[in-house]
Each structure stands twice: as C-alpha cells, then as structure tokens.
Amino acid sequence: MFSQLFKSLFNFKPYRKKSPWILHYNAGSCNGCDIEILACLSPKYDLERFGVLNTGNPKQSDIFLVTGPVTFRSRERLVELYNQMPEPKIVVAVGSCTCTGGVFRGMYNVEDGIDRYIPVDVYIPGCASSPELIIDGLVKGLDILENKTKQIELPFKLFSKPIKKDGITDRTKMSKRIDDEQD
Amino acid sequence: MFEWVLIVLTPILGGFIFGIERKLKARMQNRIGPPILQPFYDMYKLLDKQLILVNSQHIVFALLHMITLWVSVAMLILGFHLVYIIFIHLIATIFLIMAGYSVNSTYSHIGSNRELLTLVAYEPVLILIAVGFYLVYGTFDTGAIFTMGNKLDEMVLLFIAFLLIVPIKLKKSPFDASEAHQEIVGGVELEFGGVFYEILYMAKWIEYIFVYTIIFLFCGNGFLVGTILCFVVFIVINLVDNSTARVRIDHLVKIVLGFGIILSVINLIGISYV
Lengths: 183, 274
Description:
Chain A is α/β, with parallel strands linked by helices. Chain A has helices at about 1-10, 15-20, 30-40, 75-85, 95-100, 130-145, and strands at about 20-25, 55, 65, 70, 90-95, 110, 120-125, 155-160, 165, 170, 175.
C-alpha cells in the first residue's frame, strides 16, 4: 500500500529519457559501426549533451548498443550481458549486419542478426551507419524506453523449421512472439 | 543554525558542483555538455530501476561508506578536532574497500587493492598537513581555526602538497587509478546497479564538499580569499584532468608520497625554526 502511494505521488518515468546510459557491445563486427559510435561521443556529434554516458558495465546501463552479426562465440556473451542489465532496458541494433546479417547473410559462421536471441527495439540500418542516423535512432529509442514497464520481455519462440525450396533457405517465417495467435 | 542547514543540504550542493564541473569539462573540449541538473536526473533514473544485488553485506558497506562520509563533513562544518575528522574519513574509505572485497569478482578486488595503495600514498601527507595546522594556528580545533586570522602565507608548501592529494580524492586524472573506468571497469563500483549505485554516486558528491571545505580551512577567517581559492582550484583541477593521462599505481604511490612528504617536511621545518 505504501508503494502504491509512493508510485502515485512520484512519477519518475520522464527522467528515464533524460539520462540514458549505454553499454556498447561488439558481437563479431568488422569495427566500422563501432568507430561510428565512438565518433558520436566526440565533440562534433556530441552525444553527451543528452546525458549519455558510455559505461562499460551492464548493471548500470539502460541501452544495449550492439554491432555485428552474431558469431558463434559471442552468442552466449550476448545473452549473458542482456540478462545482467536491470529492467527497464532497450536494445538498439546498429548496422545492417546486426539487423539482418548484412553482407554476411547465410554464411556458415554468422547467425543472421541479433533478433534470433534477444528482443530488439530499434533497428538502425547502414554499412556503416552514419553518426546522425545513430543519434536519431537513439532518440527514438528513448521514447520507447519511457513507456516500458519493469516486466521482463516475453520471449520469442521458434515455431517452425526453415523452409527449403530450390536450394534457397527461407528463415523469415520461423519466429513469433509467444502470445501471438497461432496460424 | 546556518551550519545545520548546510549539513542537511550537503548532497544537493555537491550535486550542483558535480553538474557544473561536467559542463566546464565539456566546454574545455569544445563541446556543449549535459545540462547542469544532470546528476539529479541520473538520481531519479537510478531510483526507477529493477533491484539487482549480489549479497547484502556489499550494500551495507556502501551505505556505511556514504553515511560516514556525511558524518565527517558534518564534523568539519560544526568544528571538531581535525585529526578525528581525518580518521573518520579514513574509516569511510575502509568501508568502501571492504565493500569491494565482499563480492567474488576479480575487478572489484583489483579496485580495492588499488584503493588501499592510494590510502598508503595520501594518509601520511594528510597527517603532516594537520601537524602544520597545529604549528601555525596553535590548535587542532576547526571551529577555532575558522575564526582566527588568515595565515596562508606560512603554509604555501603544505597547500601545494594538499593539491597533490585532491585528484586522488575526487577520482580525477592523473591519479584516478583506483576507479580506472577503461582498465578495470570501475573497480569497486562494478557490482552496484540501480539504487545501490546511487549511494556511491551520492558519496562522490559529498566528497567534493569535504575537499572544498578543507581548502576553505586553509584560509581561516578570510572567506573571500577562500572562495577565490576554491574557484581557482576548481578550474585548475579540471584543466589537469582534461590534459593528463592516468599514472600507474606504483608511480602514483611514489609521486604522491615522495613529493608530499618532502614539501610538507620543508614547510614544517620552516614554520618551527624560521
């Protein structure tokens, strides 16, 4: 009852937008998008005027900025880092490789994009993305962060197998959210 | 009455100084920088996160660290014995070190190791500065020192030795090896998240008030000289932070202990025999 009173008196949600702390992780990228992210924090495209701090610590950050198509060895680390971040959090996928696999789609060593493993909120295309795009995507992600609850995200479930036809494998129809309607 | 208001408002004042400092550092680097109230936005955001803790002793030590630091600032403002104030501040740092050792994480242990080494580096110099206060003003009581005349000209070298210690306390370059953000991912602050990180963040603000009040103490009665000195030290410390790199931990001990003791002893000999 006391916490209900506290929550009705003090609304701290607008402050999530004003101080986003990011965790930057490279899941096997070529480092092009990493360099652009570091350029965002430089004096020309100053990200710190939004209150953004690049903490290296998952326990103290709200935004998970991932680059790179997921390689075999970085799969576990990606999910571990995502689990160690406290709610509410958003995941921002920077670069074409992180969204869909980019130029490496279908290769033997990469999983095509991170949304096979963790739920993604903002996709930022580009190879490599420009700093203006990254800042724009981050600001849109802050609007999503303001409306999030502290519940853990519902997991995706892979409902069906990939479809093979004429030697082309189609993996786009495999996944759904767990409470979507079955078809 | 004014002292009690100052003691209760210590974190808020420290937060303002922290915010102005981030803006100053950004302007020195030709950037715009965050708004001045940014530390308070961080505080509200951290209060709204899910609670994740490792074990309860870890959090209790961090709470004790912040409360003991606040008590030492309160003692300084109310006018107590100077050496007791230094020892209470030492206990606050020891609580932080024990918090670092109470979790099973490598980076936390390295951060606590480095914090212990910096303690070895600056505590003897601080005790020698307190001895200098006694020889110049005739008393250890800070309440009495705040009412006596301005004797900064007899304590110049001691003031320079104190300026060597300030970057260690405020965790700034070149002496910030204990909270080396890029090297050991924050050291002792590693395993704190959410509200519990807010406790350590607030302890940093209180540390600012402690350091700047001791700079006021060097000037005794002259509050105008003290204010001007605080401004100059603020700008110089941030200039040094922006332009220097981090020093290795063994070099830190050699530089601070070496130069600190030599400067303090020269000044003490000068006070006693000249």
